[in-house]
Amino acid sequence: MAGAPALQMASYRRALGRLLARLASELEDLVVLDADTLRSTGAIEVYGSAPGRVLNMGISEQDLIGTAAGIALAGLRPVVTGFGAFLMRGWEQIRNTVDRDGLNVKIVATHTGLSPHLDGSSHQVLEDLALMRSLARTAVFSPADDVATVETVEWLVRRYRGPAYVRLGRDNAFRVYGEGGFAFRPGGGEVLVEPGEAVTLLATGPMVGVSLAAAALLRSEGLRVGVVDVYSIKPAPKRLVLEAAERSRLLVTVEEHRTAGGLGDVVSSILAEEGACARQARIGVPPGVYGSSSRDYMSLLKHLGLDPESVARRVRRLAAAL
Amino acid sequence: MVVGDGAPIPLASPDLSSPSLSAVSSLVEAARRRLHILAGRGLGWHLHSSLTALPILAVLYAYWVPRGRVEGVDRQVILSKGHASLGFYTLLEEMGVLEEGSVEELFAKPGSPLQAHPEAGRTPLTIVSNGSLGQALSVSNGLVIGSRLKGRRVEVAVVLGDGELDEGQVWEAAATAAAMRLWEVVAIVDRNRVQHTGETEAIKPKEPLEDRWRSFGWKAVTVGGRVEEIAGALDSRAGDRPTAIIVEAVDA
Fold first, then answer.
1. Which of A11, A199, B48, B62 could be joined to A171 by an S-S link, Cβ 3.0–4.6 Å?
2. Partner residue facing A66 (CB), from B131, B154, B173
């Protein structure tokens, strides 16, 4: 068996830091708030372009969210950055203040999923999509790579008034799009490989790159597998999912999140509510399992069955049983 | 009046010119009588908390804010202990912001603008929804920080319960206000010495309360619950640090 094609890595946080620095120099009402992780999230870059509009709130995520809410009330455009795991410490603040009042706060979480590979399970948030997409008014997005990150965050900051959550990793943005090759649309998704007759992978975040590599492996064996980037988690790209369900007998969701509450559930509910007849399988971090420390990211993906070879193996088996 | 359409309540025309403190005292007395009548009719939800919050809210809405308007200062009030809503709503009725009888008719009905905990966009004079304790000091800080960035001076008074001080976020926010020298922020603590299950000092002691605020870099003062004392503490604020005013409840 041929190995999976090498994945070209980029960095979510480097892209984010550069973008925020640029946006802060262009938008006078942009304010970036972080909970003492500015070096890690990239927010520190804003000191270079708008030093008065980047606030280190200290290690206090609940206060971070509440302060951002007040800044939105004052009529400015706050962007909150921080580690996903610890921003969820402010979930109730997000729920009761930001979401309930529909405040214009953008929350950009870095280090989500398995991306803080060395830190281990405490830092590897696997539940944020579930928590955030259950809110009434907050829109939720999960970009595949650095290019998509820039387009997504810039669109939301410039053009969207209201609460939004963007899920980013750390330095694990497997390149999917060329410069200028991604156009963001809320409720959108991107068909990267046309749905196959047997199987289509519906992936989000860094698992889009992994899924492309897995699909290439399977294609080399003669199994045509489609790949769709579901970057808009809420609103979900319903039409794309249903089209994939029309064309493929099996849809496999692939996410660096728990299989419950994340993309797997988004797709399940679309299929069930629309009475679509495709089967669905879920690849992600299974219930009952936490992440782990790992000196490198790819070994951790392998450990949890989320590297291209493991995904391909799983899909091969599922396709054989169709 | 229509209940349930979710629209903001039609307002009576409020007289928000700066009244004298004796007029504020009369408002408090009238609202207090009204609260007891409502309680007698079965609307006594968090009665004690409403009664002790009344003089604080009356001074803020009927004296401090209008006076700011006269002086050209934008002043905002945030009720953090939202369960004192009946006190707040009764006061609004006495001030003429709500039509007479609104509270009895509309309080805590489905879709009503007078929810048990005030909600922004529905409840008059409510800029942010509350009901979850410990969050509004952070919001007050943010409002001041944002206003500063816009080059506007806004002073914010936030009304906290003493039980609410159990929430860690209050102290996160207290540290923020001190670090950024947010002198425009005033935290007013309704020191009624009770929280949901009993006496504050028996459940989780708050004392020495002034020292706690001071140790966080705030100015702190304790006053009695009469309107003159509360107004006096607000008027004598000075310097470049945030102020905590601890209001010892007059036994209602």
1. A11
2. B173
* CB contact B147 to A (< 8 Å): yes
Residue B14 lies in a domain: no
Predicted confidence (pLDDT) per residue in A22-51, tens digit: 999 999 999 999 999 999 999 999 999 999
Are A270 and A238 spatial neighbours (Cβ–Cβ below 8 Å)? Answer: yes
pLDDT band at residue B3 using 50, 70 and 90 as cut-offs: very low
Residues A134-161 have pLDDT tens digits of 999 999 999 999 999 999 999 999 999 9
C-alpha span between A199 and A320 (Å, rounded): 11
CA dihedral of residues A273, A275, A281, A282 (deg, nearest 10): -10
Nearest CA to CA, how far is A64 from chain B (Å)?
Answer: 8
B213: left (phi over 0), alpha (psi -120 to 50) or beta: alpha
Q: Is B1 within the bounds of a domain?
A: no
Q: Which tokens go with A57?
A: 């709130």
Q: Does some domain include residue A3?
A: no
Distance CA A111, CA A89 (A): 15
Position B30 in a domain: yes
pLDDT tens-digit profile of A93-120? Answer: 999 999 999 999 999 999 999 999 999 9
Last residue of a domain, one of A121, A140, A174: A174
CATH number of the structural domain spanning residue A115: 3.40.50.970
ipTM for the predicted complex comes to: 0.94
* Residue B5 pLDDT: 43
Best to test chain A binding among B119, B137, B138 (most A CBs inside 10 Å): B138
Residue B52, in any domain of the structure: yes
One domain, residues A168 and A219: no
Q: Look up the CATH number of the domain holding residue A207.
A: 3.40.50.920
Q: Which of A26, A45, A61, A92 is catalytic?
A: A61
Kindly determine whether residue B138 and residue A92, on different chains, have CB atoms separated by under 8 Å: no
d(CA A187, CA A228): 13
Residues A169, A37: one domain? yes
Secondary structure element (H or E) that encloses residue B27, with its range: helix B21-40
Number of helical H runs and strand E runs in chain A? 13, 14
Identify the band that residue A5 occupies on the pLDDT scale cut at 50, 70 and 90. Answer: confident
Residue B1 has pLDDT above 70, yes or no: no
Q: Respond yes or no: is residue A61 known to be catalytic.
A: yes
If one counts the domains in chain B, the total is 1
Task: Report yes or no on A2 lying in a domain.
Answer: no
> Where do we find the tokens 């039409």?
A239
Q: How confident is the model at residue B4 (pLDDT cuts 50, 70, 90)?
A: very low
- Domain range enclosing A312: 190-320
**Would you say residue A129 lies in a domain?**
yes
pLDDT in the model for residue B2: 35
Question: To the nearest 5 percent, what fractions of chain B are helix, strand and coil?
Answer: 45, 15, 40
Beta bridge partners of B77: B157
Inspect the interface and report whether the beta carbons of B146 and A75 lie closer than 8 Å.
yes
Q: What is the CATH number of the domain that holds B220?
A: 3.40.50.970
Distant-in-sequence, close-in-space partners of A251: CB < 8 Å, separation ≥ 6: A199, A200, A201, A202, A241, A244, A245, A267, A271, A278, A279, A280, A281
